[in-house]
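Sample 3 of the quickstart, ligand glyoxylic acid:
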Amino acid sequence: MKLPRQFFQPLAIGAPAPMRDLPVRLERMIHFVPPHVEKMRAKVPELVSQVDVVLGNLEDAIPVDAKEAARKGFIEMGKTVDFGATGLWTRINALNSPWALDDVIEIVGAIGQKLDVIMLPKVDGPWDIHYLDQLLAQLEARHRIAKPILIHAILETAQGVNNVEAIASASPRMHGMSLGPADLAASRAMKTTRVGGGHPEYKVLADAAGEGPRAAYQQDLWHYTVGRMVDACAAAGIKPFYGPFGDFSDAAACEAQFRNAFLMGCLGAWSLHPSQIAIAKKVYSPDPAEVAFAKKIVEAMPDGAGAVMIDGKMQDDATWKQAKVLIDLAKLVAAKDPEMGQRYGV
Ligand code: GLV
Ligand code: MG
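Result:
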């Protein structure tokens, strides 16, 4: 096992020192762009002000014969667009694919200074993170990159879920993790054909009580995995995210799935379609009424000590900490979105 004092050493001579704390950034939606499509690339400059993160997707959904065009398109996008405070990420191909090595080498070589995060798919264990960590350090040293490029893992294999804690704490380069429900369903041989969301047959039936129909309650297929992911990430000090929701025609179901993840501790989700940007913005910006209540808690017990009653509800150290989470998030949203700032009064 690596000794604690070595954990924060750069992995290559000349590479930047790993970050001790993650940069404080708003990442409510990670918006996926297929960079081989020129029409989509052309929209990126106007997208920058509408989303928190722009991600150039190189992996699944990009046709095999467009893999290199996607990589080139992403590099062009990175070079020509001013991203300001909006994050610039890419999802590279899986490490066992014919494209992953060139994805990393070419992208870091060309736009490593601007790239914030590499999303790594199909992470099975900490060994995948260690490999990319070392490779990135070598490339950062070669190209004199000043700020470490972070790694975001997709939790989308059964083995990855088994190793989720080791993945979360594999490297100081770890930014966070997203649930990948489509690949995870395939990896687990789940009997579904969906990208995220629930299933009408996954339900609990109420007890039989005489005559009449029995109530049935649909359950959340992803609750267990999101719970494990949130705990692993929170314990390691990194960020958990819900991933994709594939039914673009069902905004209500998308919102419900995003919100469950938000309430459980996630900080954002992927937007695969423009209509999902507004959904993620709504869900992952805290509710002004909740923020107002959180402010009442902090005002009533400024140092968090003791206990008070507000509107008939007991408040103590633990609710004070929850209130701080909401207020800090509201401040982050307000910095990007002055109109929300006014609604929060922060
Ligand atoms: C995302 O990559 C997924 O497989 O759901
Ligand atoms: Mg996937």
